[in-house]
Amino acid sequence: MKKPLMYLLATTSLLTLGVLNTFGQAQSGYIPTYYVDVQPILEKNCVSCHVAGGIAPFALDNPKEAVARANRIAEVTREEYMPPFPPSRESQPFLNERRLGIASKKVLEDWAKAKAPLGKPPRK
Ligand code: HEC
């Protein structure tokens, strides 16, 4: 890769991180809740397998099941054991990679640290 392009990429990602820290829910002090922050992440990345009758052991669309496993969820996503996606980070990029972004991982981490609060269920 050409050097100027590398610098540009490096600067852009640093800026993105900064912006996340300043404005995003990744800001420290914000306490994520199941209904507002966690449920959409699990829905998008986990529930295809972790659903009643699915191939994975427990149902992550069930708030009780998710709360009971908050610490393990934070661990397995931090270690990139879940969602399962065998190609390494060094491999060529794939379309539809099954990976969590740093912001989502931080939400799961902060949620577990805060003892997995449920928050308010959305009004139907
Ligand atoms: C492609 C299917 C699939 C997806 C998507 C998936 N899982 Fe899993 N998960 C599994 C299977 C199968 C197991 C049981 C076998 C194992 O532990 O490897 C498992 C096990 C687990 C375990 C228990 C691991 C342990 O050893 O304690 C946790 C926690 C978990 N998944 C969390 C998640 C989370 C959180 C997501 C989404 C970010 C996710 N999984 C996405 C298939 C999946």
What would your notes on this structure say?
The protein starts with a helix and ends in an 11-residue tail after the last helix. It has 124 residues and is mainly alpha-helical. Helix 2 crosses helix 5. It has 2 domains: 26 residues, no CATH class; 83 residues, no CATH class. The mean pLDDT is 87. The structure holds heme C. Heme C (HEC) binds next to helix 4. The site of heme C (HEC) has 17 residues, from helix 4.
Instruction: Work out the radius of gyration.
Output: 16 Å
Structural class: mainly alpha
Count of domains: 2
Overall pLDDT level: 87
Small ligands present: heme C
Q: Strand-residue fraction? A: under 5%
Reported for the largest beta sheet, the result is:
none
N- to C-terminal distance: 51 Å
Enumerate the spans where pLDDT stays under 50 for 5 or more consecutive residues: none
Give helix and strand order, one letter per element, not per position: HHHHH
Strand tally: 0
Give the count of helical stretches: 5
The 3D shape can be described as globular
Helix content: 40-55%
Draw up the topology in text.
Layout: H1 3-23, H2 34-45, H3 63-68, H4 70-78, H5 102-113
Helix pairs in contact: 2-5, 4-5
The structure holds heme C.
Heme C (HEC) binds at residues 45-46, 48-50, 55-57, 69, 72-73, 76-77, 82-84, 100.
Quick structural overview:
This protein has 124 residues and is mainly α. It has five helices and no strands. Heme C binds at residues 45-46, 48-50, 55-57, 69, 72-73, 76-77, 82-84, 100.
